[in-house]
Amino acid sequence: MILQHYKIVFAGSMGAGKSAAINTISDISVLSTEAVNTDTTSHQKVLTTVGIDYGEITLEEDIKVGLYGTPGQERFDFIWSAICKGALGTIILIDHSAEHPIQQLNEYFSTFKEMNDNIVIGITHLDQKTKNTTLIYREWAELQSKTYPVFFIDARIKNDVLLLVETLIANAEIQIAH
Ligand SMILES: Nc1nc2c(ncn2[C@@H]2O[C@H](COP(=O)(O)OP(=O)(O)OP(=O)(O)O)[C@@H](O)[C@H]2O)c(=O)[nH]1
Ligand SMILES: [Mg+2]
After folding, report:
1. What's phi and psi for 58, nearest 5 deg?
2. Residue 70 to residues 3, 17, 76, 86, 106: CA-CA distances in angstroms?
3. Cβ of residue 44 lying under 6 Å from some atom of ligand 1
């Protein structure tokens, strides 16, 4: 019997792995809205999300989680606020191998924090070559007024994505309890 039905949002930069993360953990076949990527200056990938991705996972017997993926491209920012309505929180994924990951983190973080302050951050693509060090995220975290969890993950690995989801739910439960 399902007692709780949560909604969580995956946000963040193009190619960071939002669609991959939802596909990796969803129990149902994911409803996706991918189209051919015309914005190849932002990212070289062939397909990009242009609407909403939707998946579902049941955690234990009684918690069903709706997984909502946003399109990374900023031209779809009107969809972001609609998706965030009624959500428990937001997982922000950032591609570490991008040119300016901290700039991207700041942009998505400030936008999505306005809609929901329960945020968990996943840094992806650590296996790829880049001049960036991972210390930049510690420096970023130290600049924030409160603690936001930051994890280094691979969006293709189920346990990595589950860690983000479970942390987001645990933090929401702490906020409700206070
Ligand atoms: N090498 C590597 N590839 C990853 C990692 N995480 C995700 N990917 C891959 O990165 C590619 C892009 O991921 P998507 O899930 O399409 O990215 P997205 O965030 O949905 O991007 P948009 O919909 O365009 O905003 C996919 O082929 C993923 O399998 C990672 O940690 N390392
Ligand atoms: Mg996508």
Report:
1. -105, 120
2. 26, 11, 9, 15, 17
3. no
Q: Which two tokens stand for residue 127?
A: 């296996």
Show the tokens assigned to 109.
């973080």
Q: Determine the atom of ligand 1 nearest the C-alpha atom of 155.
A: 6
Candidate from 10, 18, 52, 132 with most ligand 1 atoms within 8 A of CB, to mutate: 18
Q: Is the pTM of this model over 0.90?
A: yes
Question: Is the CB of 55 inside a 6 Å radius of any atom of ligand 1?
Answer: no
pLDDT per position as a tens digit, 9-55: 999 999 999 999 999 999 999 999 999 999 998 899 999 999 999 99
Ligand nearest to the CA of 46: 1
**53-59, strands of its sheet edge to edge:** 53-59, 63-69, 4-12, 89-95, 119-124, 150-152
